[in-house]
Inverse folding.
């Protein structure tokens, strides 16, 4: 079997081989075309030069006179010899009459002899043209031009040529120049390719591609083994990393999110805010599908901001927070208050019996039984969600313990499974609103004369039908100033002291995730009314009723 590991060449060698091969092919063809073009231009230039010289000779009065006289004078022959020596690109002048007999030739022994080459025929017919033929001195590139006297009668022709050996020598010079240039360009390009390859390898920290792929897979396995979710974006907000824990926690398993804009997938995560260098820790994010705590951190490389990272947790810290913010603690407080209230009532009954006032004890028992019966019956009949019902009963008992009258509207109705909010969200909303109302009433100085006649009341309305869900809580507490009202829902904002203020921010999160609306009507030292309306049915995926 072939061992493919023997073919693991380095990045440098691969790039050198491929780039040098490609460069060599491109340079060869490009310089071949360039050389052919240069030779064609050279030949065209030589032909034009021959034509111009031949035309100049054919129109010379001295040459016309020589043809008319039938001979070339020694003075004219000497002048033609001097001209031929001064022209580097022309080797032969010939002047012939209409019988193709030479009247002038560089070799004086050829004068008087018939023109050699066999290509002079068209010239005797009055045509000028280029030809290649073998003459007395060898293979030549020739140009013929007829000579006419002043009456327009042809009296002979001139022939101007360059030896093909000289033409080939010029061609070789052109090819050699291009070949030298090709070699120089090839050497320079090869050097640049080597430098580029070295630079690329340095940018890869000296790793080869197969090493990088192996390291990537190993680190991806490590990242996916973490229980914390990791989600990273680049400078433009595109997702570049999401591990298995993040996909599970954020319910993104069935979505292809790499490369997509984070705001299009998780707009409420607000990860783009970290692209300005800001750090945020323990940020809570609550929707119908998940409830997480995340840290948002900018990612920097060599002092330059290159992206942002969200570390998402769904472990014991979040479980503890969920218990605190979704109402389980409210239920525990309610049970404690109910126990305490029951003990107080037993103490009252015991005191009346020991004092001998059994009739008063009986009336007290009947009154409480009637109240408890009516309250429990109303809640049992109208509030079919048992967890929510238990919370309301606990809040009623807690309110009674503090001397606050809590009423549940008679038209309150809610099924066992709400179409608009999960049980967890229902407990969060109602528990926080009622607890805030209790705190608002408890914060009043009831000993002052101004508040002696003021009622201590809380009214709760929970009504759900096909049109939507309405939750309203009205209290006679301290109320809010316009400035306090404008800051409702800000994380950490509270009028109740340090360590409080999560309740309304959680309500805001639930409103946003459930597309609900909240209105607040409050007046300082009069009271506050919160009304929440939900009209969009919830997505039940991943929820428990």
């Amino acid at each position: 079997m072939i061992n493919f590991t023997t073919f693991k060449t380095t990045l440098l060698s691969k790039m050198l081989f491929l780039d040098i091969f490609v460069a060599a092919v491109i340079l060869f063809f490009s310089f071949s075309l360039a050389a052919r073009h240069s030779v064609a231009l050279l030949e065209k230039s030589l032909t034009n030069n021959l034509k111009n010289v031949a035309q100049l000779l054919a129109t010379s009065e001295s040459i016309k006179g020589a043809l008319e006289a039938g001979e070339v004078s020694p003075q004219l022959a000497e002048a033609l010899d001097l001209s031929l020596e001064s022209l580097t690109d022309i080797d032969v002048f010939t002047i012939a009459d209409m019988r193709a007999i030479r009247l002038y030739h560089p070799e004086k022994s050829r004068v008087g002899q018939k023109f050699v080459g066999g290509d002079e025929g068209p010239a005797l017919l009055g045509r000028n043209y280029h030809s290649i033929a073998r003459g007395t001195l060898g293979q030549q590139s020739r140009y013929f031009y007829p000579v006419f006297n002043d009456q327009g009668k042809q009296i002979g022709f001139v022939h101007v040529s360059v030896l093909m050996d000289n033409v080939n020598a010029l061609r070789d010079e052109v090819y050699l120049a291009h070949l030298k240039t090709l070699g120089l360009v090839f050497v320079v390009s090869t050097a640049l390719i080597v430098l580029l390859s070295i630079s690329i390898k340095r940018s890869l920290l000296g790793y080869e591609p197969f090493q990088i792929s192996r390291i990537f897979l190993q680190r991806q396995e490590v990242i996916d083994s973490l229980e914390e979710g990791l989600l990273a974006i680049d400078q433009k907000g595109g997702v570049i990393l999401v591990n298995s824990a993040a996909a599970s926690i954020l319910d993104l398993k069935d979505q292809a999110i790499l490369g997509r804009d984070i705001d299009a997938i998780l707009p409420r995560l607000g990860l783009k805010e970290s692209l300005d260098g800001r750090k945020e820790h323990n940020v809570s994010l609550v929707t119908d599908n998940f409830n997480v705590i995340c840290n948002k951190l900018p990612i920097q490389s060599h002092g330059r901001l290159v992206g942002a990272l969200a570390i998402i947790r769904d472990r014991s810290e979040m479980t503890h927070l969920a218990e605190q913010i979704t109402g389980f603690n409210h239920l525990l407080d309610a049970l404690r208050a109910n126990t305490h209230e029951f003990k107080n009532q037993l103490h009252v009954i015991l005191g009346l019996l020991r004092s001998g006032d059994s009739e008063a004890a009986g009336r007290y028992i009947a009154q409480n039984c009637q109240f408890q019966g009516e309250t429990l019956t109303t809640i049992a009949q109208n509030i079919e969600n048992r967890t929510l019902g238990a919370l309301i009963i606990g809040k009623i008992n807690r309110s009674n313990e503090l001397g606050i009258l809590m009423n549940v509207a008679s038209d309150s109705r809610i099924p066992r499974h709400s179409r608009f909010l999960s049980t967890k969200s229902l407990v969060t909303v109602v528990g926080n609103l009622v607890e805030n109302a209790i705190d608002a009433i408890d914060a009043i100085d009831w000993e002052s004369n101004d508040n002696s006649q003021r009622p201590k009341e809380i009214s709760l309305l929970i009504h759900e039908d096909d049109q939507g869900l309405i939750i309203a809580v009205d209290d006679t507490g301290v109320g809010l100033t316009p400035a306090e009202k404008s800051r409702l829902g800000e994380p950490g904002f509270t009028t109740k002291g340090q360590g409080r203020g999560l309740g309304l921010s959680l309500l805001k999160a639930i409103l946003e995730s459930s597309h609900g609306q909240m209105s607040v009507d409050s007046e300082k030292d009069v009271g506050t009314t919160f009304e929440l309306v939900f009209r969009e049915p919830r997505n039940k995926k991943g929820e428990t009723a």
In short: The longest strand covers residues 138-148. The CA atoms of residues 75 and 450 lie 143 Å apart.
